[in-house]
Amino acid sequence: MDWLPTLSEGSGPVYRRIVDALSNDIASGRLRRGQQLPTHRALAQALRIDLTTVTRAYGEARRRGLLDARVGQGTFVSETTTRATVDIPHPVKIDLSMNVPPQPIEANLDTRIAQGFASIQKEAGFSAFLNYQRPGGGEEDRDTAANWLRVRIPKAQTDRLAIYPGSQAAIFNVLLSLTSPGDVVLTEALTYPGIKAAAGKLGVRLVGVPMDEQGILPDALGSACRQHKPKAVYLVPTMHNPTTVTLSPSRRKAIAEIIRKAGAILIEDDAYGSLDPSVSPIANLIPERTYLAVSLSKCIAPALRLSFLLAPDVAADQILRNNLQATTQMAPPLMVALVMHWLRSGVADQIVTAIRNEAIGRQQLAAKLLKGQSFAAYPKGHHLWLSLPRHWNRGDFVAHVLREGLTVVASEAFAVDQVAAPHAVRVSLGAARNRTELSTALHLLAAALKSSTAAMQVV
To answer: Which domains does the chain have, with CATH numbers?
Structure first.
């Protein structure tokens, strides 16, 4: 027997204690992804319990996403806890359009959420988090967040940090505080669609600045600052969405100097920075001119709806709090309590590490299966930027793979200010439920790229 659970003492049903032991052994590393488990009968005999109890335990573990049953082979530790999505459009079999983190079995999110809420209930009870909270968070929670951020942002201060219900809300409120309808905000020529949506709602004009394979061009940014006198510059300098570019230290320094000389304000979207703590945000160079949004959506889970926003100073932080109160009031208090528990206990770093390792594995798989194709990627990122061969245009390619049951995102979704979009698509590796599904999708992409069926479709 490669695995025999240690059942905890307690009044709970035995089958649930088997599932709890399974979950704990996965979290501790005693059980590894893909490891085969004993048969139902063998485990029942070893534990001296009824066969139906083990069958029920294995069934519950599969429901939680902890185990996979393979016909004719046996029961195995799952690769991921992500289950099939039931509300995607019918033709879609694999959706690689949403840039989300994977949920590897090592992250053990289901169990850690349950354990976290159990600790919160024991320490404070849930009712303490069911009322209105101070917009931007209380001092204790903000201090916890600031301490966690100081590993990457040494000057993170509690009195200029606010907790937001996601970076989209943070970005919207920064624009609301800095701009008026008709004002210009500069960004990369290809950028995150969320900033496009926020600017559109506020009547702000985005102007795209040219890029090369290393990111936004400093000289072009300087010229655009002189020409447009922007109210702000919005950048995703780390694992850029969609091109995957991470700016070099020298280019970060050049951009910081340009923004300082222009008297401009930087909105730095640090959605992916926690996946690579070795990369220093531009905000460390010009904290007095930067609004830095650090999201947990890409390094833990998007539905936490939690982001930290560092303002340039205390006065700016207070304006943002007022805007937050007027728009979304506060981040969800129970989610804040859970995340703060994870930050203080070190669980958050364990989850991020598991997700980072899975991202690395998926990037390696993509490099292998798309060998010979033209694409950009970052070793620890969740997506890649796939250039299309000349015989494909992006619209026909997206339609072609959709007919095969696969969704990706064409480049025009990211283009700013009518900038001509390249013939490329973003492929979100983290969206696949597991590496087997991702492998299927990548094989399909590779076949589509080599296909000649587009020849008659290109106008």
So the answer is: 14-77 (1.10.10.10), 94-108+349-456 (3.90.1150.10), 132-345 (3.40.640.10)
